[in-house]
Amino acid sequence: MTEAKLIDGKAIAAASNEALAAEATAFAEEAGAPPCLAVVLVGDDPASAIYVRNKGRTAEKIGFRSIKRVLPADASHEAVASEVAALNDDPSVHGILVQLPLPAQVDASAIIELIDPEKDVDGFHPLNVGRLAAGELERALVPCTPAGVVALARDAMGDDLAGAEAVIVGRSNIVGKPAAHLLLAENCTVTIAHSRTRSLADVCRRADLLVAAVGRPALIQGDWIKPGATVIDVGINRAPPPADASPDARPRLIGDVDFEPARRVAAAITPVPGGVGPMTIAMLMRNTLTAAHRQFEARR
Ligand code: GUN
């Protein structure tokens, strides 16, 4: 039995970042300053702190300017709003990302709507959501994880995805829905399945491209996969350590796909970790450079 090719998200992200570093140098020469990403972190959630640190490190590594604004966990809605307003008004800042989740006293939707849509490198502002849904990709900023999913699918299947049967399991605003719009723009035949889908296994078996983004560990079984399909696993779930593991063993990360059986059926599959994860930050950097170019062109 042949095994699926592993889609190496780490390597693909590294190659993308390397190309961006050269483009950032060219931008800085033309514009007189490098692309700049500002990240706002509210509170001290350890996972959020790590994400924010990694985003800043990657930005600096590829020659972007990186700004971090940290507010206390009890910061008021108004305090977060005025931080966003200041970054909107600063012409040297091209991209703004407010790390989610936000504390309960801050209205996250209202904060996202305050971000200048041209600086909304998460692609969460309703104007960017609408542009994506309308297929106006040349004007939109699109969410980073779904953009990474498409980049990995193209790496495995070739740049022309037209006509492929794409099944996305999961309908979140951050991954499932925007991934559906992006794959539609690639001329795939798109199905969004979810927890209430009838005969989920049969729906999955139709897929030439299966995108798993439900957050249910190893939900997708090997025999749900069409032989020769490409499988992109967005899930990041903590699995309990095996019974014979030492007491201080760290929890393993597993995806939404039951990896070993799936690997024996698919043609190409992403590992977890090391698949979609590294692509998210690479696409954030891509969005920041795109935003910088658009703002520079609009001002001259
Ligand atoms: N928290 C977890 N994922 C994300 C993301 O993609 N963007 C933001 N802003 N916060 C997050």
Shape: globular
Number of domains: 2
Strand line-up of the largest beta sheet: 1-11-8-7-5-6
Q: What distance separates the N and C termini?
A: 59 Å
In CATH, the homologous superfamily of the largest domain goes by the name NAD(P)-binding Rossmann-like Domain
* Count of DSSP H/I helices: 10
Quantity of strands, as a count: 11
Output the CATH topology of the largest domain.
Rossmann fold
- Biggest sheet overview: 6 strands, parallel
Q: How large a portion of the residues is in β-strands, by DSSP E?
A: 15-25%
Could you name the CATH class of the largest domain? Alpha Beta
- For the CA atoms, what is the radius of gyration? 20 Å
Mean pLDDT: 97
What hetero molecules are in the model?
Answer: guanine
Please trace the helix and strand order, writing H or E for each element: EHEHEHEHHHEHEHEEEEHEH
